[in-house]
Amino acid sequence: MLARHAHGAGLGFRRELIAPLKTAVPEAIRFFELAPENWAGMGGRSGKELRHFTERYPFVCHGLSLSLGGPGPLDEALLHRIKAFMAEHGMTLYTEHLSWCADDSHLYDLLPIPLTENAVRWTAERIKRAQDILGQRIGIENASYYVAPPGAEMSETDFISAIVREADCLLHLDVNNIYVNSCNFGFDPFAFMNALPLERTCYVHVAGHWVEPDGLLIDTHGADVIDPVWSLLEAAYARIGGEVPTCLERDFNIPDLPVLTAEVEQIARLQAAAICRKAA
Asked: Can you tell me whether residue 71 is helix, strand or coil?
């Protein structure tokens, strides 16, 4: 299939949204994102429905289970499946979480990697191997977490920067993850973001989260985006420009398409404003 490159504002591709999207895809939605683990090799009706959209719109692959920082062997069979799936559907961008989620079996959670020199080398080598198999650079996403692993030898921003540099990969910037972590661990989200290797940004996520009664923020992707996260996204565009494709994540409590479209339109407005400022 002809390769399609994502641009503008996009939306996570959910089965609950297929029917209204087949009726009409709102103009603001320029691309979709999916998890390849949930779709690669899918046949029947679901496979046909996916093909209906990939023939018309760019898609981004955002992985869930590669466990880039994990202790177990890198899942090279999965990477070969993803490579074939991306080629089949003309997808050109793959990103994954900078986390680990498996050992002897999958743990079904995204866990933080210790901030050590050994972990930098280990994770960077696995990213390089993933890139060799896929035949392209991948984006790594700054993750949300709720317990900081012990034994830190560097800051998280230095850790991310070192991996990006050593692996020669790209950055997938998630502004909601930064905001959630900043509230839970008490740091300045803008200073954190500005310390990342933003010049390597290939993709951006924005999402909502849940606030527990005790004030703990949980990165659920199940609520509307709040104003402080929109402000962080606007600040990101001031640094990286508005041209970087940005996806609205919404994984459950999925509202009607017009509600989601309004948030995608807000992404597009912030992108357009950043592009105008750059051109002025």
From this structure: coil
Asked if 166 contacts 117 with a C-beta cutoff of 8 angstroms, the reply is no
CA distance 205 to 187: 20
In order of 11, 29, 143, 246, 274, the CA distances from 237 in angstroms are 18, 18, 19, 10, 6
Q: How far apart are CA 140 and CA 116, in angstroms?
A: 17
In a domain, residue 152? The reply is yes
Question: What was the pLDDT predicted at 233?
Answer: 98
The residue among 114 and 149 whose pLDDT is bigger is 114
Q: Tally the domains of the chain.
A: 1
Contacts of 197 (CB under 8 A, 6+ apart): 160, 161, 164, 165, 171
- Asked if 204 and 264 count as a contact pair (C-beta separation under 8 A), the reply is no
Query: What's the domain range around 173?
Result: 9-279
CATH number at 216 reads: 3.20.20.150
pLDDT at 104: 57
Q: Are 99 and 68 in contact (CB under 8 A)?
A: yes
pLDDT at 223 over 80: yes
Residue 161 lies in a domain: yes
